[in-house]
Amino acid sequence: MDKYDQIKSFLLILFQQTGLTEIWWGNLVMMFVGAWLVYLAITKKYEPFLLIGIGFACIISNVPGSDLTQPGGLFYIAYQGVAQLIVPPLIFLGVGAMTDFGPMIANPSLVILGAAAHLGIFVAMIAAKVIGFPINEAGAIGIIGGADGPMAIYVTMKLAPHLLPQISVAAYSYMALMPLIQPPIMKLLTTKAERQIVMDMPRFVSRLERIVFPIVIAVVVNLLLPPVAPLITMMMLGNLFRECLLVDRLADTAANEILNIITIVLTVAIGSTMEASQFLNWQTLQIIFLGLVAFVFGTASGVITARIMNKISGGKINPLIGSAGIASVPIAARVSHMVAQRENRHNYLIMHAMGPNLAGVFGTAISGGIMLALLGAK
Amino acid sequence: MTEITVPNTVEGAVVLSIIDFVLSMVFIAGIGVMLHFFPYLNHIGEIKEDDLSE
Fold it and tell me: Is A375 in contact with A159 (CB distance < 8 Å)?
């Protein structure tokens, strides 16, 4: 063998050790999808905290030479945090520590919107069953309509873990796109006069009420809804840290450091599941379409219920707050506020919309908990 | 491991949806009723925020 052949064989061996021999068009498509998510996050500012990590991990996971998604790799280890259901409760801890439940406590009559806006879950679930998904998968798909990422992950891991990539991507993508999806539906289902309603200021909520709230809710949820108790319990613990005012350091750590670290883990875990051979199929398109159905029906049912409540209350409730019952704190409340501001610049609806929005978190948890119980998920 | 107790049919999905939706409304309405009584907590006592600090 002369020197030329030797160099040639070395280069061949080197080439065979790269990912170039295994790459196929599906990887390229998914790398494009990942790049598109990063583009949306950076240029359009759609949920950058989530989409940058998801998009980047999606790109890397579709590079065949990368070992990050293989056992022992960091993306694989991150995914174990999701698979073992460690990540979702920790996210809820952080969310609880950064959330003021005052608007929900102050306006109990609006809490019902947190359940009413979840009709989309069931419409999507029935539609999924009709087009042939098994009932456990249909339930997991339906929960996309709850617009609550950690809850969607939690329920999916219990009912249909193999659908995690599609469901989590659909849930987070639609949450990011809510400012585009919701306003046309809200306008279609309300009159201009209704959109201009200025609501009364909510009452003052005392420190005692704020401290009692997380304890009571944690006890009630553990008692009545054990399947989702880990999530709500952690959220209430975080909220107690915040509201007792005595452990600011713990509240800050939960709301900042822990939540930030967990967000990194979660996003790379989700992105790492978007490997072309798993993701590029007809089922993914169906799930993404059903997720949209869930969001549309959830928004519509929330607005219609708020409209009914407006009639009953004698015109005191702006129906735009109904769509905020879909959860996704605080995006949905911001959308309600944004649409109201277009009609009346002096209408600050956000504080009123936060009540149904926070109730929506409980609404999703309750719907998910009942679904898990009825489907016998352990 | 998921043990399906609801029939794996469209009818099963409809029944599950109706039960889940109605129970969700009942649960959340229950939370709403509970919150209606929260202002009465203020008759029991008061926590002074100035006394609360790390």
Answer: yes
Q: Output the pLDDT for position A378.
A: 66
How many residue contacts between A and B have a Cβ separation below 8 Å?
Answer: 150
User: Is-contact B6 B15, C-beta < 8 A?
Assistant: yes
What pLDDT sits at residue B3?
A: 58
Closest CB from A134, A247, A362 relative to B8: A134
- B34 — contact with chain A (CB < 8 Å)? yes
Q: Is A349 helix (H, G, I), strand (E, B) or coil?
A: coil
Distance CA A242, CA A258 (A): 14
Q: How far is B33 from chain A (nearest CA, A)?
A: 7
Torsion sign over Cα A197, B31, B37, A89: negative
Contact A359 B28 (CB under 8 A): yes
d(CA A223, CA A217): 10
Those of residues 180-199 in A touching chain B at CB distance below 8 A are none
**Residue A53, number of CB atoms within 10 A of its CB:** 24
Which residues lie closer than 8 Å to A122 by C-beta, 6 or more apart?
Answer: A142, B17, B18, B20, B21
How many Å apart are CA A232 and CA A252, to the nearest integer?
19
Please tell me the pTM assigned to this model: 0.89
A115 and chain B in contact, CB less than 8 A: yes
Q: Using CA coordinates, name the residue in chain B closest to A159.
A: B2
- Note whether A234 and A90 are within 8 A (CB): yes
CB A353 within 8 A of CB A337: yes
Tens of pLDDT, residues A113-137: 999 999 999 999 999 999 999 999 9
- Whether the pLDDT of residue A153 is over 60: the answer is yes
Q: At residue A356, does pLDDT exceed 60?
A: yes
- What is the complex's ipTM, to 2 decimals? 0.88
Q: Classify residue A258 by its DSSP letter.
A: I
Rounded Cα distance, A96 and A239, in Å: 4
Task: Name every residue whose Cβ is closer than 8 Å to that of residue A96 and which is 6 or more positions away in sequence.
Answer: A214, A234, A235, A236, A237, A238, A239, A240, A241, A242, A254
Cα atoms in the Cβ-side hemisphere of radius 13 Å centred on A244? 16
